[in-house]
Design goal:
This protein has 13 helices and 13 strands. With 352 residues, the protein is of the alpha+beta class.
């Protein structure tokens, strides 16, 4: 079945660049599989559309941009200035109109534009089918403090944590009172807004710097161990990936540039460890009410215990991202993975 598909990406999240690469990869993969897929930037939209918007589904190369991930996060103010109508609306010109002409919208968004449930809610109100989890589960997963509360309530092991509310002048005091651990904003992603201070001075700096990323601030005990990530697709867990950072500070640049980390998929785990990691990902996926696909990040400590760090309701889907790697290890090509996400999402939306 060949479908008209809008691949929605970009937006104004700090993860905009990752989203553009995700969306471009998805759009081209779907077109190769016979779908009439078109790339659409959530914020920039289409400035000069044809008289018949539906003609865009047959546009050359699906309007895919030449997208890549730089070593620094995107300049969002420059993106705002580049929009012709200078509107502050989240949806760019003709975005919703084109989405309403599609059989389904494939959400290639990341961060607050897409993962927090607002876009899903808007599409739902318009009766437009979309991929992935619903608006409520997306919002829960996006907010690290809310999802931590859900994990605690469901008996999912997650590192001890504390939600911080403080003024800048309190940073010095908090740096003395709190143990050195992980400092992160509750709505960040792609390692943006995450700090791993090891001294009191680094703690103070982290407590000040993290406020630039918005949202509330969370302190979490740092668990030392092997970094694993496990995707869920439908009702099954995929093989785990292990990440070993090549640098001490695994920041945005290290995460997306060649040589920033060594990734092993499937991870070198015992049969029991692999089964436990898959079971934890599935339990977390279900506890948060997620559907279709997700990715759970976890730590396997020196005592063999797994700790759930966070869940991504719209994980990276560039051709080399974790989820496509795990799908490949399970015998599924990138195009087949994109198709399967579309199929599972349509099945759920039809049941709804």
């Amino acid at each position: 079945m060949n479908l008209k598909i809008v691949v929605l990406a970009g937006g104004l999240s700090t993860e905009r660049a990752v989203s553009l690469v995700t969306g471009t990869g998805i759009c081209r993969a779907l077109r190769e599989r016979g779908h009439r897929a078109v790339f659409l930037d959530l914020f920039l939209g289409i400035e000069n559309p044809p008289g018949d918007l539906s003609a865009l589904f047959d546009a050359e190369d699906g309007l895919c941009p030449d997208a890549k991930i730089e070593t620094t996060a995107p300049d969002l103010e420059a993106v705002r200035r580049s929009r012709q109508d200078q509107s502050p609306r989240v949806f760019g010109p003709h975005v919703l109109e084109l989405c309403q002409l599609a059989d389904i919208v494939f959400l290639g968004l990341h961060g607050q534009d897409g993962e927090d449930g607002r876009i899903q809610a808007a599409l739902e109100l318009l009766g437009v089918p979309y991929t992935g989890s619903g608006y409520l589960a997306s919002g829960i997963a996006m907010d690290k403090a809310v999802s931590k509360r859900m994990m605690d309530a469901c008996g999912i092991p997650t590192p001890p944590w504390q939600l911080l509310r403080y003024a800048p002048e309190d940073a010095e005091r908090l740096a003395r009172e709190l143990p050195c651990g992980v400092i992160k904003c509750t709505t960040g992603g792609s390692s943006l807004g995450v700090f791993l201070p090891e001294t009191r001075e680094e703690m103070r700096t982290a407590l000040l710097e993290v406020r630039r990323f918005g949202g509330e601030v969370l302190w979490e005990r740092r668990i030392i161990g092997r970094e694993l990530t496990v995707a869920v697709l439908g009702d099954r867990a995929l093989p785990a990936v292990e990440t070993v950072p090549a640098v001490k500070d695994f920041d945005y640049a290290a995460k997306y540039q060649k040589g920033g980390a060594a990734e092993t998929c499937p991870a070198d785990l015992t049969e029991a460890e692999a089964a436990a990691a898959g079971a934890l990902a599935l339990k977390t996926h279900r506890a948060l009410g997620l559907s279709v696909y997700s990715r759970t990040d976890m730590i396997l400590d020196g005592d063999g215990k797994l700790w759930c760090l966070e869940v991504n309701s719209l994980p990276g889907m560039t051709p080399t991202s974790f989820v496509p790697q795990e799908a490949a290890a399970a015998g599924m090509s990138y195009g087949e993975l994109c198709d399967e996400i579309v199929r599972l999402s349509l099945d759920i939306r039809r049941r709804d």
